[in-house]
Amino acid sequence: MRKNLSKQTIQRMPYYLQYLKGLWDDGKTEVSAPFIADHFGFTEIQVRKDLASVSSVQGKPKVGFRLFNLIQDIEEALGFRREHKMILVGAGSLGQSLVSYREAHKIGAVLCAVFDSNRELIGKTFSGMTVRDIRDMKAYCKENNIHMGILTVPVPKAKSACDAMVKSGIKAIWNFAQIHLSVPEGVLVQNENMTASLALLFQHLDS
Amino acid sequence: MRKNLSKQTIQRMPYYLQYLKGLWDDGKTEVSAPFIADHFGFTEIQVRKDLASVSSVQGKPKVGFRLFNLIQDIEEALGFRREHKMILVGAGSLGQSLVSYREAHKIGAVLCAVFDSNRELIGKTFSGMTVRDIRDMKAYCKENNIHMGILTVPVPKAKSACDAMVKSGIKAIWNFAQIHLSVPEGVLVQNENMTASLALLFQHLDS
DNA sequence: TAGATTGTTAATCGATTAACAATC
DNA sequence: TAGATTGTTAATCGATTAACAATC
Question: Which one, of B44, B46, B69, lies nearest residue B59 by Cα?
Fold first, then answer.
């Protein structure tokens, strides 16, 4: 247990977590892989492997896992039990809604500042966050030791904004722009590919 | 060519498309797989396979593909050259920002109506869309022949909202709630897993 | 022609699924 | 004990990568 998690496993984890918390609230104290598998329509083997990869203790035959421990172990494995400071770049409509995205806060993501290059937006306040000048980003990130950022600018501005983030010491970028960003070794770009999601929906209906 | 596209291939396509359109705007008329691969940091074999799976014509050795045809073929394969009517359920902050999500419009997604169960929101207008009572959803969808929907309600309301969408004849659901939705055969739930994206960012920085 | 790029067929790799002994 | 569930080791499956002949 406590192996390196595959990307696929990580993507399933938040759904397990949400479900397990619900079971806990319902008064359950133990849960087995087949029980979870049945809920999600996954194979029990897949769930067993997923759980084994994060659980700090072995499950008990015939019983399963202690719900309380499992929830903690998943949160720990996903990094939800630590705080992660981040900035947001691009205070357009999508950016504004992410400022108030509650889920992020629940898992330890702490939005510290919002930046934009647009003079119309700088100085304005959304959900309690005042938009700052992107030219102050580097100083801010260095001073506050921030290495994670959300990028919600339009495509034409994405490249330069990304470069500015890298220069500011950002090492992990959550990119909402539909464009490939090339970054130095060691910097991660996690693309939030909403257009592709829509394409998958279209595919389903057109076929 | 014109094979069934894998999910992975579909997810790369929008990035190709954005890049190719940029090349077109720059006056280019032909493009080769190795050239594209170099830009994205993919292997040229992968790009070649991806292009072959959507292109309506064979590429020309030593030259590549006609940019104009390729752009059209990708748009066609992704369903971006048809209109897709959809509804949005859940007019909270995320829902409101998606109402004004311009990218969706560019690829043929046409948002026809917004629904919510919250009395405070019903009747209000966001970006020109007036929020309707979710109880009117079924009649609306039937009347307007709509089979695609976006789900942006909070977790506790997601299950009932999903059920209502299914009853309204929705066959493809873009789900932003961090919860597993079980639906009848033939209905697709495409999860937009933002929490998992953050987990992947955390993973990168914590290791 | 020579060389770059194509499409196809085979090999590799990683994730999922199956099989099965161990155990409470 | 019997039976459900566990973890592990092996088989399958699909996607990526490699090899190579065809071609403009």
Answer: B69
Q: What torsion do the CA atoms of A198, B90, A101, B200 make, to the nearest 10 degrees?
A: -40
**Cα(first)–Cα(last) distance of chain A, in Å?**
42
CA of A61 to C1' of C22 (A): 9
The string of DSSP letters for A58-86 reads PPBTTTBEEHHHHHHHHHHHHTTTS-EEE
What's the rounded Cα separation, in Å, for the pair B206 and B197? 14
Mean pLDDT of B93-121: 95
Instruction: Inform me whether the C-beta atom of residue B203 falls under 8 Å from chain A C-beta atoms.
Output: yes
Q: Tell me phi and psi for residue A111, to 5 degrees.
A: -80, 120
Q: How far apart are CA B198 and CA A86, in angstroms?
A: 11
DSSP state of A113: E
Question: Residue B73 pLDDT more than 80?
Answer: yes
- DSSP single-letter state for residue A203: H
Question: Looking up tokens 């997601």, which residue turns up?
Answer: B158
Contact at CB, B10 and A203, closer than 8 angstroms: yes
- Name the pTM for this structure: 0.96
List C-alpha distances in Å: A121 to A91, A138, A184, B89, B194.
7, 19, 30, 29, 25
